Amino acid sequence: MALVAVAMMAQQPVITFDKTEHDFGKINEDGGRVSTVFTFKNEGMAPLILSNVRASCGCTTPTWTKEPIEPGQTGTITVTYNPNGRPGRFQKTVTITSNASEATKKVFIKGEVLPKQVKPSSKMTVQVGDLRMKTKTLDLGKVRKGEMVQGELEYTTMTPEEHHVELLTTSSDQFLISQVTLEQVKTEEIGKFIFVVDTKKAKFLGPLKATAYVMIDGKKELSEDYKLTITADIEEDFAQLTQEELMQAPILETAADIELGSIPAGKTLKGQIAVKNIGVNTLQIHRVYSADEAVTFKPCKTVKSGKKGVINVEINTQDKKPGRYTREILIITNDPKQARKKVILNWIIE
Q: To bridge 47 with a disulfide, which of 68, 166, 193, 304 should be the other Cys (CB 3.0-4.6 Å)?
């Protein structure tokens, strides 16, 4: 029986490979598919037939010799890898099933996919005339009074023509310093609008908004399409106060939620916010702020220790629909523990 078994094995095909692993090394994600060929030989005594060649994932595609491989002849398995969308290292397995004495064999591919180099201009989808930008808004965040803060907005052009670029700022924004790094911009070149806010020149604390207009080839377009918005939030610096100064500091007291009543549409609603200083030093009301431009204030400037004051409120209801309205406001003071007191205003338009 042993002799019969050996004789039968001798009659089977035997598959051998010139290599069982291929390293593609470093390849580019956007460089297209890459392939390698595994050559195998039938070293048995009967025809070799590959019944199936299967990859471990859909990114790897094998093709192979389908015809029977006679003894002493060779066949090939071509393995193709698609790197698109697959940055990083990889190792894949290809499993070969055949009628050989060793029915299952495996070969391997590996390598490293280098990520696509994305052009900065591809992220610039906001149109500003013949220019393109990522955004037309620059938020410089919180900054302490007395400091300077800087930010930038990038721009480019996709037109074949070269363009001259300038910035126009309003005279009221004396705290804003602007600069253009690339006045003559060509296709795919990246320029920057540099903005510096000098808080020493700002006349108030709290949220700040400035505007600048992009001028292209000398054309002055003061419209929303060419407007850039720069925002910042200026805070008073209380870090240098001593413990004694903190104990002598003013303390703002006011209601957190205020009902202003109701008014017919188109009229101006007037109301008051009562404030009190329960601290020691004089309370200074630097500013009262609302993001709703229809809400304006005339606050008392100072409130002495133990005294009361008022913040007069006016709300323009023109072009407002009937209904209940709620707005959050900020009372910005020299109270170090609540320099920004949030108050909710409520009213009804009939």
A: 68
The residue among 235, 264, 280 that closes a domain is 235
DSSP label at 219? B
Q: Structurally, how many domains does the chain consist of?
A: 3
Tell whether 62 and 125 lie within a shared domain. no
CB 230 within 8 A of CB 209: yes
Angle (CA) 341-343-344 rounded to 5° is 160
DSSP string, 263-287: E-TTSEEEEEEEEEE-SSSPEEEEE
Average pLDDT of the chain?
A: 92
Tens of pLDDT, residue by residue over 163-198, are 999 999 886 778 899 999 999 999 989 999 999 999
pTM of the model: 0.65
Q: Are residues 143 and 210 in the same domain?
A: yes
Strand 137-144 to 227-235 pairing: parallel
Boundary-marking domain end, from 212, 235, 258:
235
Domain hosting residue 128, numbered range: 120-235
